[in-house]
What does this fold into?
Amino acid sequence: MHYRKLCAAFVRSMVLLAAVAVADAKNVSPAVDDDGANAPYKVYDAMPAITMGPLLLDMAEDSVAIEWMTDAPSDAKVSYGEGTLDHEAVPQVDGLRPVGTMHRVVLRGLQPGRTYQYRIASRRVVALKPYWPDRGGTVVSPTYAFTTFDAAKSSVRFATMTDTHENVERVRALTALALRRPVDFVVHTGDAVHYATGEDQLKDKFLEPIATGLQGCTPLLYARGNHEYRGGFARSLGGYLHAQEGRYYYTRDAGPVHLVVVDTGEDKPDATNVYAGLNDLRSYRAEEYAWLARVLAEESRTRTAPFTVVLGHDPGWGWLDGANGEWTRRANEAKVDLFIAGHLHRLERVNPGERGNDFTILALGQDQIARVEADERELKVTVLDREGRTVDAFALRRKNK
Ligand SMILES: [Fe+2]
It folds into this structure.
C-alpha cells in the first residue's frame, strides 16, 4: 500500500480510536461508522522468519498435523492439494485465529495413500490491539509434499530412534541415517529432552533439528518418554507433541502394519519425593490401559493387519505399581508382533517367551536407528549404529491371528 494513503488511513484510525476511547470511558458502546471500519489497519514492513519446520507430525490415513515456528507473533495458513494448491486450512480457536510463534494446523479430509503438495504461510501480527491490530508481511515456505498412510498398501518402511536427550548432533546424524534409504515415516520413542524448560529449548534441541532433517516431507510419529514428564514446561509439551487426538497415545495404520503408540509414563512411583506429590500416573495410566484394552480388542486391524507393532518408550511399560504383567498379557492376547522402545540407552532384544511376552521386544540404544520393512508376509528389522553399521537384524513371520 502507498505510504501516503496508508498514513492518511492511519490518522483516520487514530481519530476513531480516540472516539472509541471516549465512548468506553463513558461506558457507552462506541459507534464505528462504516467508513471508519473500512479504514485500513497499519501494515509494518516486518516479515516473520520460519525458525522451525514445517514438521509433519502424526500422519494418518486421512489427516496430518503440520507444525512450524516463527520468530515473532504471526497467524498460520496451509495451502495444499493433490495437483495444485487449491485448498486452504486456516485454524481458529473459539472463533479467533491463533496468533503466536508456534503454529499447528491439522489437515483433514485427505484420501489414503495420496501425495499432496503443501506450503505454509504466516503473516506477522505486530500489535494485537482491540481495533485495527497492526500487521506485517507474510512469509511463505517453498512447496513440499507428503503421502498419507494407507492400510491397503502392501508394504511399508520406517525408521525409529530414541533417547536423543538434547544432543542436536545426534538428532541430525540419526535423522540423516534414517533418510539414507526411502522411508514412509520416522518414529522417535521419547526422551528428546532431559527435562522441559521452554519453547526455545524444545525447538533448539529437538524440533528444529528433526524437522530440518525430515525436510518437510517425511512424517514424524512421537511417543512420550519419562523425561518429558519433568521440568517447568512439561505441562505445555502437548501443544507441540500431542497426536491429533490431543493425547500421547494413539493408533495408526501404515500398509501391513497396525501401529499402537503408547505412553509408558514415568519410571518411579507417584509417591516418591522426587515428584513432590505432583504426579498422578496412577489415574492417567489406568485411563490409558482402558484405551489399550479397548483398541486391542475392538480395532479390527489388530486382527486383520499382517503385523501389530507397539511403539513406546520403556520396554517394561513404565511404573504401573506392579500391573506391568497386565499390559504384557493384553499385548499377548492381541498377538502383538513387536514392541519397539528405548529408555535403557543400550540395545536389548527380548525374544518371545523370555519375560512372559509372546512378542519380540526391541529396546534401541541412543546412537542407533532401527529400520523396519514389512510386507504382507514378513517384517524385517535392521538395527544400525550411528555410522550405519548393522548391529542387529532379525525377521518376523506373519502369525495366524
Ligand atoms: Fe532416556
